[in-house]
Amino acid sequence: MKSFSFLSVLFLVCCAFSCSREKPVDFSSQIKPIINAKCISCHGGVKKQGGFSLLFEEEALAKLKSGNYGIVPGDASASEMIKRLHSEDPEERMPYLEEKLSDEEIELLTRWIDEGAQWGRHWAYDKVEEVEVPEVSLDWGNTPIDRFIAAQWDANALSPSAEAAPEILARRVALDIIGFPAPDSLKADFLENPDNAHYEAFVDKLLSSPFYGEKWTSMWLDLARYADTKGYERDFGRQIWEYRDWLIRAFNEDKPYDVFLTEQLAGDLLPNPTDDQLLATAFQRNSMTNDEGGTDNEEFRVAAVLDRVNTVWEGVLSTTFACVQCHSHPYDPFRHEEYYQFAAFYNNSLDYDTFEDYPLLRHLNQEQSEKLNQYAEWLSANKHSEKEVDAMVKFIKTLSPARYSVIAKDMKNAALVDTKWLAMRNPSSTRLPGFTFNGENTLLLRWSKRFSGGTFQIHLDSLNGPLLANVRVKKSEGRVAENIPIVPTKGKHDLYFTYSHPKKDDGNEVTHLQFDWFYLMNKEEQNPAFWELLNANVPSTPIMLENPDGFHRKTHVFERGNWTSLGEEVEPMVPKSLNPWPKGAPQNRLGLAQWIVSDANPLTARTMVNRVWEQIFGYGLVETLEDMGTQGADPTHRELLDYLSYKFMHEYKWSMKRLVKEIVISSVYRQSSELVPEKEKLDPNNKYLSYMPRVRLSAEQIRDQALFVSGKLNPEMYGKPVMPYQPKGIWLSPYGGGNWVKSKGEDQYRRAIYTFWKRTSPYPSMMSFDGVGREVCSARRIRTNTPLQALTLLNDSAYVDMANALNVQLFEMKKPVEDKIAWAYEQVCQRSVDAERKARLAGLYAQALEAYRKEDDLESPMYEGLSGKEKPEYAAMLVVCNALLNLDETLTKN
Predict the structure, then answer these.
(1) Are residues 7 and 107 part of one domain?
(2) pLDDT-derived band of residue 48, with 50, 70 and 90 as boundaries?
(3) Counting Cβ atoms within 10 Å, is residue 554 exposed (0-12), middle (13-18) or buried (19+)?
(4) Which residues contact 639 (CB under 8 A, 6 or more apart)?
């Protein structure tokens, strides 16, 4: 009987082994990792040694330089690749001069080829499909998310943790939704009745709070590389805060994510775009502009185009596309030329690397907007077509599509002043290429004229071509917009400017004329309202606009990524390895936006779901938010990622608030974060989420929380950036002498999102807590815990000021010291203090009090009005308040 059992078991084991051997080798999970780790550096997108590449299937199966084939599907013995893996000759064996592949790896590759060398796709490039919620035996959880999480616990001997205490949960969910602890008015009902219904009602209140939009905008600003300066060496200021306010409004109104993206990518190309839709495109104008003299404007215009490409791919599509600028992707299926096909969508925008950041959306006030409507009615009444009316209204709002003087060529005794504006001396000439005429009788231009008496002429197509205009120059005070009457003409032409003055210069290079922009129009389209609106000094924001007909640029592949080495010309298109181009979509940025937000796009929904998960749990379902490709981290819960991504697109209709709510009402989110040693041994990184991760707060959350718990938070929303306390000497601007001027009154206590962001010198405490410079798109911040952070909270005057504000409230209480400490702890940590913590804080107070009583003279503006006895007591409690703001439990979601 025993012998029979042994034979039966042996037979079953052999059958199981045989069955496992019959299971086909999977390319994506078994073969691709070996290729990426051991082969691709010599046989991929960068190098193709021997003419062999393993990046694309057709390249891998192609004939080699030797005439042999690296891979012969179905016949590993005839495949040069397998022969080289077995070779004992160090000059023949692969990997060349590297450690030999293991027997298991060679056996896998051999089996794969013998089975037909079936190529596969990385999971992230497959369309998101509906996923069934797993059945689990564990009687736990109240949402599908919980079942996906629990499904992995059995195999890993894990179990759920108890639900967090209501006080802790209330703080946690408020930090995740609005960015700081919830006011008592929002959380009171839940704390009194901490059941599911009241918790969900509390979540709904947080989601409807205007503070929600501010918190989630702070996440997006890193992706948008938002800053209040232009970057590079000069790093002059840029007025773009209206875009930040657009984001806050968009998140608060729960603008569907597909619409949210479309308006930022192509709001200007929507039918009859609103000012808000134009403003949204400032997302793409956050790229840096180089105002340094002597730079090449075209070089940095191109740099801005490539930055926009890289931002979309890294921030919106979680793909490391930037390396394809120089060569095909080393690991993922993106070809070198596809980078420039994608860049062609952005290469046709109207902006240049100009000082003024044209084109701009000019923010007219209500009175000016009414005047603009009256001007439009006047045009219609004077028999101008609807198209002509729209064009003139657009010009008033955006000063576009103008031609900018930086395009000047063939300059003789003329130059681009500081590489920004065309300047003409006496005598001089220059060529302005690419004007398209439709019979206009006026060239409207913005220029400055230093002297009267000179002659300015415009010729068509050459210096000796037909005379288009002849003007006697009159001196101006600064730059002015003026009409130059021209002979009507049609077609595309170059304009040649000439200038001369009867008075000869004394040998110095004196600028006589300086030009900003040029615009072709008809004088009949002008009236007093036109000139009043055109010359109005109004705030503005850089936006994207497409080049009109006649302005289109050609796009070429850059050989090895060098913008001066142009290869073949390409047309706008998306990579072939992803979803197809939407049927009927225009071949421009609007079509591109439709391709990105299509439910067939495999990356868009996954990327945002993964990012929201990271904001809440500290790590994404795919940890590498910037890279879902084959070199990115493996997903911890791939089916859950696809489940939520499908729901996000289809059931939630791209609603961010519904996605956030679905996550935070789950039982996995509501678990305690108490660390159990047994779980730490089984799952050291807590990737299976059997307890809630303890997550370090972001720089913005740390500041906002301190403002709130100290009672100093100014809840005012929107508007110009503010400058809270910063030590002198942080800004060392090489040009312009820009200084940090501390905001007055309550403005210095506004939320962190409104703090002025200088790219070359971001707000110091933000950087101490892992903020980013925002020169380029940053898909995720790396969380750290450093001594500098503790020093910042203990010594930065801004945080000392907040600690003092908390202390003022304590001083006014007529209570024992221990009661004051208990109240302060609860205010800061949002939960009751236990006896051990109270005793430690009371000990700190006593120690500080003893030290301060020994001080002969306590002098500080904070002690003003206090008696000699009160000063040591006040100072000692200030130490406690300062320490509370620096506690680990204050700086962590736990």
Answers:
(1) yes
(2) confident
(3) exposed
(4) 131, 134, 148
306, HSE (Cβ side, Cα atoms, 13 Å): 20
Q: What is the pLDDT of residues 225-276, one digit of tens each?
A: 999 999 998 999 999 999 999 999 999 999 999 999 999 999 999 999 999 9
Q: Is residue 103 part of a domain?
A: yes
422 in the same domain as 455 = yes
Neighbouring residues of 746: CB distance < 8 A, sequence distance ≥ 6? 714, 716
Verify cis geometry, omega within 30 degrees of 0, for the bond prior to 95.
yes
The answer on pLDDT for 10 being more than 50 is: no
Same domain, yes or no: 412 and 517? yes
Per-residue pLDDT reduced to its tens digit, 207-229: 999 999 999 999 999 999 999 99
Q: Is the peptide bond before 488 cis (omega within 30 degrees of 0)?
A: no
Distance CA 584, CA 780 (A): 35
Query: Cα(first)–Cα(last) distance of the chain, in Å?
Result: 58
In a domain, 319, yes or no: yes
**Residue pLDDT, tens place only, 694-719:** 999 999 999 999 999 999 999 999 99
Tally of CB atoms within 10 A around 684? 8
Residue whose C-alpha is closest to residue 172's, from 643, 651, 649, 673: 673
Cβ neighbours, 10 Å, residue 271: 6
Alpha-carbon span 450 to 471, nearest angstrom? 15
Place of tokens 């990356």: 603
Nearest residue to 455 (alpha-carbon basis) of 501, 392, 488, 393: 501
Residue 176 domain-assigned (yes or no): yes
Is 88 part of a structural domain of the chain?
A: yes
Q: Which of 247, 169, 188, 165 is nearest to 212 (CA)?
A: 247
pLDDT confidence tier of residue 29, bands split at 50, 70 and 90: confident
> Total domain count for the chain?
5
Instruction: Assess whether 559 and 605 both reside in one domain.
Output: no
Q: Cα 716 vs. chain centroid, distance in angstroms?
A: 25
